[in-house]
């Protein structure tokens, strides 16, 4: 691993030691250090696109079978405590952050409550390619 990695654009690089974003600004001391490192023969790591961690709410709901969706949204399940808030938070947005704590809690609740198997939950809560 190099000391720096390229960013998604030429407007910045990432210092790998601490994950700092260094803007392409000749007045920035970290950018000046990066330029010295390059001049000394340093080669930055290539840009790596981060994994997708969100999905549209519509696509996420479509991942459920009809039976799973009915069971997950049943009034009795939603009123058992704890799950309703997480469910409602997910549906209040256009997309679902699959790496959020509330999404992880909902996933665990659906498995614990027997609504989904762990294998199905892993499929439904997986980020799309």
How would you describe this protein?
- By secondary structure, the chain is α+β, with helices and mostly antiparallel strands.
- The chain has two domains: 4-39, no CATH class; 54-124, no CATH class.
- Helix content is 44%, strand content 13%.
- It has seven helices and five strands, in the order E-E-E-H-E-H-H-H-H-E-H-H.
- The chain has a three-stranded antiparallel sheet with strand order 1-2-3, with helices on one face. Strands 4-5 form a two-stranded antiparallel ribbon.
- Helix 5 packs across helix 6 (101-112).
- The longest helix is centred in the last third of the chain and has 12 residues, at 101-112.
- The chain starts with a strand and ends in a 5-residue tail after the last helix.
- The relative contact order is 0.13.
- The model has no long low-confidence stretch (mean pLDDT 86).
User: What is the number of beta strands?
Assistant: 5
Note the beta-strand portion. 5-15%
Query: How many DSSP helices?
Result: 7
- Bin the helical content: 40-55%
- Report the sheet with the most strands, covering strand number, pairing sense and barrel closure: 3 strands, antiparallel
Low-confidence stretches: none
Estimate the global geometry from the Cα principal axes.
elongated
SSE series: EEEHEHHHHEHH
How many angstroms separate the termini? Answer: 26 Å
Structural class: alpha+beta
Strand order of the largest sheet: 1-2-3
Q: How many independent structural domains?
A: 2
What is the arithmetic mean of pLDDT?
A: 86
Gyration radius from CA atoms, angstroms: 22 Å
């Amino acid at each position: 691993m190099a000391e720096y990695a390229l960013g998604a654009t030429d407007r910045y690089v990432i210092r790998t030691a601490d994950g700092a974003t260094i803007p392409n600004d000749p007045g920035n001391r970290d950018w000046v250090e990066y330029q010295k490192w390059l001049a000394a023969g340093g080669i930055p790591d290539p840009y790596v696109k981060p994994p997708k961690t969100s999905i549209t709410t519509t696509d996420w709901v479509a991942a459920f079978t009809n039976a799973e969706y009915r069971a997950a949204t049943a009034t009795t399940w939603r009123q058992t405590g704890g799950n309703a808030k997480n469910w409602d938070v997910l549906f209040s947005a256009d997309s679902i952050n699959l790496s959020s704590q509330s999404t992880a809690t909902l996933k665990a609740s659906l498995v614990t409550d027997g609504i989904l198997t762990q294998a199905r939950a892993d499929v439904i809560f997986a980020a799309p390619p």
